[in-house]
Every structure is written in C-alpha cells, then in structure tokens.
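Hi Prof. W.,

I finally got the Redox-sensitive transcriptional activator SoxR prediction working! I wasn't sure whether to trim anything, so I left the full sequence exactly as given:
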Amino acid sequence: MSKMPLPSDLSVGQLATRAGVPVSTLHFYEAEGLIQSWRNPANHRRYDRRELRRVAIIRVAQSVGVALSEIREVLDRLPRDRAVSARDWAEAAAPWREMLDERIALMTRLRDQMGHCMGCGCLSVEACPLYNAEDRLGRTGPGPRRWIGSPEERA
Ligand code: FES
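And this is what came out:
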C-alpha cells in the first residue's frame, strides 16, 4: 500500500514501543491480516497511528481467550478507507457480546464455585452426592456438565 506519509505515522519500532509488543508480534499480526502497513519512499514500513487501537484490541481480546480468527472477523468489519468511529467499533464487536457474556459467566463460576460440584464425574466434593449422585450427569456427556453442559443441565 502506498500513500502520502503523515508526521503521525509510525515506524515498526515506534508502533512496537507504543503498543508494548515485540516487532515480531507486529509482523505476525500483519501476516495474519490483522493490521496493515505501507512503504514510504525509502521503502521503510510505516503504520498509520490508528493501528495502535487495532493492536490494543487484539492484545486485550487475546488476553481473555478470544481466538485470532474471531478477532479477525471483527477487524475485517471495520472500514479501512476512513477513520473508524466509536459506532463502527461497537457494531463490529456486537457479535462478541454473547460470547463474552458467556465467558464472563463461566469465569465468574470458576472464581466463585471452584469448591462446589461441577458435575465432572470425580464425585470428590462434599456436594457431589447432592448435585451428581452416582455420576448421573456423566450420562449426559463428558466434562464438567454443571458448568458447560446445556443450560437446562446447569439449572
Ligand atoms: S465436582 Fe466432580 S462430580 Fe462433583
């Protein structure tokens, strides 16, 4: 991509420093199509300052377990030919709402109920005879049935 350089454009080193990631991470993000650069007349890679926000979103989303493919889906919905508005960001991220709500609920359970029966089949917690007598939840499928089974099973 070529364009007129702006004083606010960043070198890869400047972007890495400001974003708090190694240059190699930026190259990876770029290879994955998550961020874009262009070449100045000296053939140096330059980044629009707005790429900082994309990198920040990628890092935060990754830190809470959002897959790169899911991040890419959101970033691909954003315009590249103009400044991205707050509304653009909100609309692009809307599909994440349900997924993030589910993760928040699961993380809250993990934080608050680690000592309770989760229906995993171990029958080793005091509450297991009450919530999973004779491992009956095991007949509904594998894993911690009370946490990640169907909503009916969690009730
Ligand atoms: S905690 Fe594993 S079955 Fe109850």
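The longest strand covers residues 45-47. Does that look reasonable to you?

Thanks,
D.
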